[in-house]
Design a protein that fits this description.
Elements (H helix, E strand, L loop, with lengths): L11 H27 L2 H21 L55 E3 L16 E8 L12 E9 L5 E9 L8
Antiparallel strand pairs: 1-2, 2-3, 3-4
Keywords: Membrane, Transmembrane, Transmembrane helix
Protein name: MSHA pilin protein MshD
Amino acid sequence: MRLPRQAQGLTLIELLLFIVVVGIALAAMLRVFTTATLASADPMIRRQQLAIAESLLREVQLMPITWCDPATAANVETAASTADCGGAVENMGPESGQTRYGPSNYFDNVNDYAGFSMSGIRDLSNTVVSGLSGYSASVGVAAAALDSLTAGSGDALKITVTVTGPDASSLVLQGWRTRYAPQSPF
């Protein structure tokens, strides 16, 4: 018993056409993968900028916001205004000789970060973080209105962190810090 012609398999022409079509499809797919691979560095830079900005913003937000300079005022936790500081008022920007990097005379208040910048991301011991030398970061701190708090009260600070990547792109992240002094003894 013989099978009909259609069930006997592929002809040489059909096989060659199949190989050509599959080759064209693979070439197109390979081009898509190549383009995606070449562009994959861009999201990495953006993610790195975001990680740097989040880390620096968190660092600033964890600092106290007080009326008095924590380094010199004895009543820093109970002062209800600058009048309670005895001349040791906390002003915007770092005090003379203050730095972000320890071990002594380091930033001790949110206000101290106003105007801070670094080229090449550094940790708190002033060591350049490996692989981040092409990035730079700056911090802005300003009194601002927040809900029922007025900008003039100084009870709310807007923190703006700007990170510039090695490709000159910038990422801006903002956060807030509010004053809760005087602290209650409870």
